[in-house]
Amino acid sequence: MSEQALPLPASGRWRRPLPGFGLGLGIGLTWLGLIVLLPLAALILRSGGLGWAGWARAISDSRVIASLKVSFGASFVAAVAALLFGALIAWVLVRYRFPGRRLMDALVDLPFALPTAVAGITLAAIYDANGWVGQLLQPFGIQLVNNFTGIVIALIFVGLPFAVRTVQPVLEALGREQEEAAVSLGASRLTTLRRVILPELLPALLTGFALAFARALGEFGSVIFISGNLPWKTEIAPMLITIRLEEDGGVPAAIVLATLLLLMSFACLLAINAASTLFAHGNRRDG
Prior knowledge:
mainly alpha
């Protein structure tokens, strides 16, 4: 059967199934403004209304400082760990074929779909002193729950998919031609990794780190069950925001904390875009 071209409208122009640029842009910006920009703008305006005195009073609180140290420190450690293991998982998924590969690839996205509270309860049950893993470590005096280590474990769980999914498509597009050329010229495995593979993966690695860090910084549900929420020790900033909202006169401190987390997450997104732009300009100059 011969193929026939689809008939054009009477005007001779192909009609797109979606609205034109102006209407589509207007609808998209409207929903973006209502769902994302408006609440964020309200938070920033509310925090700006507190003045420098209100900010200084909220930030100078020792409990707030301690919670910020825990959140930023645990998020950084978890983002580094998620980046290292995520890159390794992406390498295995792209470069090797083995039974269960598709299942492993699907499991990477599980933290995206799993409710964070369910993840927190599960992690706490597994790594508790009576859990499957915790009881094996208990004789050695290693405790993974109700301390900083438990927070890092929960944040790695939620940040790992970001690292895998940012590195995986770059590896798939990279192919093996450059590696084979380097090997044919006598380069060792370490030299090939350092001079051929890492420069190509660096933008994706930085993006994965920034996304994992920003995600971990605002994580709440998966952390509260495994951290113990001990003030000045294992209390994270999102948890302290909830506590301050429930206290009389604690709303200003909660607003300041929320604004700080928002600004840090926004800085991570700006860093991602800046790094992508710089690498794109560098590649064009090299080309």
